[in-house]
Amino acid sequence: MPMTRRQRARAFRGVQYLIGLVVVVILALIIDWPTLVRSWFNIDVARQMFPRVITTGLLNTLQYTALGFVFGFTLAIVLALMRLSSIRVYRAVAMVYIELFRGLPALAVLIIIAFGIPRAFPGFRLDTWQMVAIGLGLTAAAYMAETLRAGIQAVPKGQVEAARTLGMSPMRTMVTIVLPQAFRIVIPPLTNEIILLVKDSSLVYTIGVTIEQYELTKLGQSNINQLASVTPLTVVALLYLCITLPLSWLVRRLERRHARAR
């Protein structure tokens, strides 16, 4: 008898699982496990990285991420409101900014902040923390502004009209009615932006940092040279996952909660 559609789908899945299992077995047989463990999972090498990889690398990565997010989020609110303004000049300026900084890589923005501005304005100096906050924040703001704009526009217009009917000014309506609801809507995508900032913090080394200002990637690279092993990359990767995986879980949970609320 010919198979039904469900039976064919089940057989097709079974074949896929079998192929995947065969590939895994072949890889397990041909990999040089002693060399792999010695190079990438050397416990003695990993032990030498502690506690500095936590007290310096991880801590600085979190601080750089926080600085970039705070600066970028503050600027993003202004840009989002400008994009929704009734004044054409404000809309044009915000649109140009967003398109420009969404098109520039974060590395280029950091280099411009660190080396371009001091040359353009002699005597004007920024310390490393200020350069990181501005450099990472400028790029993040362009993405977060569009996210916030979408969140503001998702708030039902009837609530705005009701607030205006009660005599609220446009500014008070935006601050007390619209923005709190918009923030609730955009929390999941903003959490994704934090994850991107965590990874973008690895670019900070390009502006020149001291040993005490090393973030995870730079610290891992330094330890590779000192310890003559690539195990530091494994340690750094695991620490990045310790930051990003909980954030990814939080995003999924918030998205499910928001879907149920709708």
Automatic annotation (TrEMBL):
NCBIfam families attached to this UniProt entry: HEQRo_perm_3TM
Domain ABC transmembrane type-1 intervals: 58-251
Organism of origin: Nakamurella aerolata
Membrane-spanning residues: 12-31, 62-82, 94-117, 230-251
GO MF, one annotated term: transmembrane transporter activity
GO cellular component: ATP-binding cassette (ABC) transporter complex
Pfam family, one: BPD_transp_1
Keyword Cell membrane: yes
Designated name of the protein: Amino acid ABC transporter permease
Alphabetical UniProt keywords: Amino-acid transport, Cell membrane, Membrane, Transmembrane, Transmembrane helix, Transport
Record has Transmembrane as a keyword: yes
Locations listed in the record: Cell membrane
Lineage: Bacteria, Bacillati, Actinomycetota, Actinomycetes, Nakamurellales
Similarity field: Belongs to the binding-protein-dependent transport system permease family.
One GO term of the biological process aspect: amino acid transport
Span of the signal peptide: none
Membrane topology reported for the UniProt record: Multi-pass membrane protein
Matching InterPro entries: AA_ABC_transptr_permease_3TM (IPR010065), ArtM/GltK/GlnP/TcyL/YhdX-like (IPR043429), MetI-like (IPR000515), MetI-like_sf (IPR035906)
